[in-house]
Design a protein that fits this description.
The protein has one domain. It contains eleven helices and no strands.
């Protein structure tokens, strides 16, 4: 996992250097720094010593999920990873494999579907709720293959969920900009329901954490409460920040738009 993340980071670093030499203003330094922070978050979740302790505490398992879905995914998207990969990979690879893949009809259909916010919201929600169903969770805890599939699903679900939010502002129509805070608010609801269930449950939901040793002298039920509270607080603040930023930008743009409309109306009125 560490080698895979390192290889992806090196390819994207090469792409950033090539882009900076050819088009200096396309991806500024801060975007690349954010991308590196996102890759670091992914490594912390799947390649660091933290990844080896997720079978011992549910709270550590929850930190992994947050790093993949709520931190790593949006930070990587902010860094424009598609451009970085395109310019970081060898040209022959792009010509022979990447371009034909992107022109393939099923890939284009999936890409078109992922432009719809409803599809993106459902993808993130299903990833969160589906893997926290006890039967699915226990399957991932008992199998390395399914555990890796769970992590991959969280990361891909996070990428898909954040895609409608992390878009160039000029591409979002003025009348639909209020959908961004609404989208984020609706995104918190499944996480809030799940975290409340884990926090206030009077029994251990996931049996894999019941018979194990108490790491840091933390009982299993208290560990579950900590995991639920951690998810509740982190998701609320992580979703609140972009919602507030989007709201401020909407309010800043609206007076100018109203003024422009008023000026046009006055100029179009007949002079008597």
């Amino acid at each position: 996992m560490t080698l895979a993340v390192l290889l992806a980071a090196l390819v994207c670093t090469r792409g950033w250097y090539r882009l900076r030499n050819s088009f200096p203003n396309v991806i500024p330094t801060w975007r690349f720094a954010v991308f590196v922070a996102g890759m670091l978050s992914v490594w912390l979740a799947i390649g660091s010593p933290l990844a080896g302790r997720d079978h011992e505490l549910l709270s550590i398992h929850m930190v992994q999920h947050l790093l993949l879905m709520a931190i790593g995914a949006p930070l990587i998207l902010l860094g424009a990873p598609v451009l970085l990969l395109k310019y970081g990979l060898p040209e022959w690879f792009g010509d022979r494999f990447l371009e034909p893949l992107l022109r393939w009809s099923p890939v284009r259909m999936i890409g078109h579907a992922l432009t719809r916010p409803v599809v993106c919201w459902l993808a993130g929600t299903i990833a969160v709720i589906g893997w926290h169903i006890p039967a699915a969770f226990e399957l991932a805890m008992q199998s390395h293959l399914w555990h890796d599939m769970q992590r991959a699903t969280f990361f891909v679900g996070g990428i898909v969920f954040w895609r409608p939010i992390i878009e160039p502002w000029h591409r979002v129509a003025q009348g639909t900009r209020w959908s961004v805070p609404l989208y984020l608010f609706l995104g918190t609801l499944p996480c809030d329901a799940l975290s409340a269930f884990l926090t206030f449950s009077d029994r251990v939901v996931y049996q894999s954490y019941l018979p194990g040793p108490e790491l840091f002298n933390l009982p299993a039920l208290r560990d579950q409460e900590t995991a639920g509270a951690l998810m509740w607080v982190c998701v609320t603040f992580i979703y609140l920040i972009p919602a507030v930023v989007a709201t401020i930008r909407i309010l800043e743009d609206e007076p100018a738009g109203l003024l422009f409309t008023e000026v046009n109306r006055q100029n179009c009125e007949p002079k008597i």
